[in-house]
Structure formats: C-alpha cells, structure tokens
Amino acid sequence: MPERKILNEQLISSVVEIAKEAGEAIIEVYNSDFDYQLKKDLSPITAADNLAHDIITKKLKILTPKIPILSEENCDIPYKIRSQWTQYWLVDPLDGTKEFINRNGEFTVNIALIDNNTPTLGIINVPINNETYWGSKVNGSFYSSENGDVKQIQVSENYHDRIRIVASRSHPSEMLTSFLEKIVDYEILKVGSSIKFCLIASGQADCYPRFGPTSEWDTAAGEAIVKYAGGSVITTKGKLMAYNLKEGFLNPNFLVSCSCGKIASESFLQSTVFEANDIGEH
Asked: Which residues pair with 234 in a beta bridge?
C-alpha cells in the first residue's frame, strides 16, 4: 500500500507551481504553428498535452515519489491495481484541447489529489493569462492573478439576482435546454474547460449543470475548488461524486452550484426528466 501524504500548505504551494510551469509550456506550443492528432477515442491531442503531461508527472514523482499518478495521457492502469489506491494524483494536463485548437484561450491544467475516492486538493491553472485557482481541506480556496496577487475566494451568496448559469461551449445538450425551461430567471454563459468550476468558486457564476460525457480528470480539481469555496458538486441522482470506483472513468451527469444556486439545484433534483440516460453512474 503506498504511503499516504499529509496535505499541508507547503505541498499545496509546490503543486501550484507545477501547474503554472505546465501552463507556461502549453503557451509556448499555443503560440507556435502546432498540429494535432486524433486518439483512439477520436478526441484530439497536441504536443502541448504531451508536454504538460511529462512536466507534471515528472515533478509530482519527485515531490511525492510514493503517491501514484493517473493522467488522461497515461490512463491504461488496470483497475486491479488502481482499486488498491487510497490516495493518488489525478491529472488532466490540458483540459479543453478543442478550445486550445480553436485558439480561444479557454483551456486549463487540472491537478487533483484524491483521498479515499474524493478530491481533497484541486489546482486549475489558466495558461492564457496565468491565473491559478486552488482549493483544499487545509484552508479553503484561493485565486492567484497573473502578477501573483493571491486572494481567498468564496461562492456567491447573492440570493436576489437572476441565476448565472455556465455551460459547455463545445458540448451542447438537449437536456440542458429542458433544464433551463424549469428556471424562471437566468442568464447563461458558455465557457470551455474547467474554467466553469472556477467561475462558480469565485462567485462569478451560480450553477453549472452538466449533461453528457466527462471524465474524472475533467472534474476532480474543479470539484475541490468549488467545495472548499463553499459550493457543492452532486450527481443528478442527488449523490456525491466519487472517484476510482470502477473500471472506466466516465462521470455521471452532475450539477455544480453555489449557495445561491440552491433554487436551481432543488428545481433540478425534483425533476424526473433527467433520471434516464444518465452515464457513468457509480
């Protein structure tokens, strides 16, 4: 059994720097004349994905040599082995590869520490402007600007304004349309990658309903940041998200919300429209 690592501020700071370093490498590729290939599942991959993966895994192995690493770009680890893990790093080296290819800036680096099937630390770096978000059970969630200024962040507590909903830019959903019909007063913002989690954690949005395929490395870091900023991430069945409990990596449909997103959450959970066609249910 791998030795467990005690989460502390020094470890958090080190992993934040690793995410930033990966983000800087991604931007170098972004500013070049890059190409992309298709993986077996027909999702795109670029040199930036591989470069960020190499940087993150190398640095994490040095920082925490006894903690295993599961990355989107190296996920063929048999479940028989993974099921023995009580603590591991879960990494998406470049979340939002389609946005990267489209050059709209909406892509991120995601790193999460999973303890007993739940994220206890999450870091998201936004390479285009070198902004970084992180959250942990140690001391809450934080935001670092391009110039290094750090501030603590919390989800919104504004109960009176219209609900600000964020949705995927690249993955439209008929179920989302049905969900929105149940919300009386809302505005919607379409954004790529895990930036959606960051907007909720920092109080810039209230609700992120996701209907359709996502993988565990897409959500773990964002879930930690939202959770430790005072928000919640639940499945459409009303359950908590859980990680590394099955062979595959697909998440069930889920809802991310802040404290003032409670109205949207209750409306959603009371509906039976979304009970069918859920995916990846644990």
From this structure: 240, 255
* For the chain, counts of helices (H) and of strands (E): 8, 14
pLDDT on residue 182: 79
SS3 200: helix
Res 275 pLDDT > 50 = no
Output the DSSP codes for 106-164.
Answer: --EEEEEEEETTEEEEEEEEETTTTEEEEEETTTEEEEE-TT--EEEE------SSPEE
Rounded average pLDDT over 199-204: 96
Which residue type is seen at 112?
A: A
Distance CA 260, CA 236 (A): 18
Helix 9-30 and helix 47-63, axial crossing angle in degrees, nearest 10 = 160
Q: What is the pLDDT of residue 273?
A: 45
pLDDT in tens, 23-82: 999 999 999 999 999 998 889 999 999 999 999 999 999 999 999 999 999 999 999 999
Domains of the chain: 9-153 (3.30.540.10), 163-270 (3.40.190.80)
Distance, CA of 131 to CA of 151 (rounded, Å): 12
Using only C-alpha atoms, the chain has a radius of gyration, in whole angstroms, of 18
Distances in whole angstroms, Cα of residue 75 to Cα of each of 4, 79, 89, 215: 21, 10, 12, 11
Backbone angles phi, psi at 10, to 5 degrees: -65, -45
Distance from C-alpha of 103 to C-alpha of 209, rounded to nearest angstrom: 25
Burial category of 225 from C-beta neighbours within 10 Å (exposed 0-12, middle 13-18, buried 19 and up)? buried
Bridge partners (DSSP) of residue 165 are 188, 207
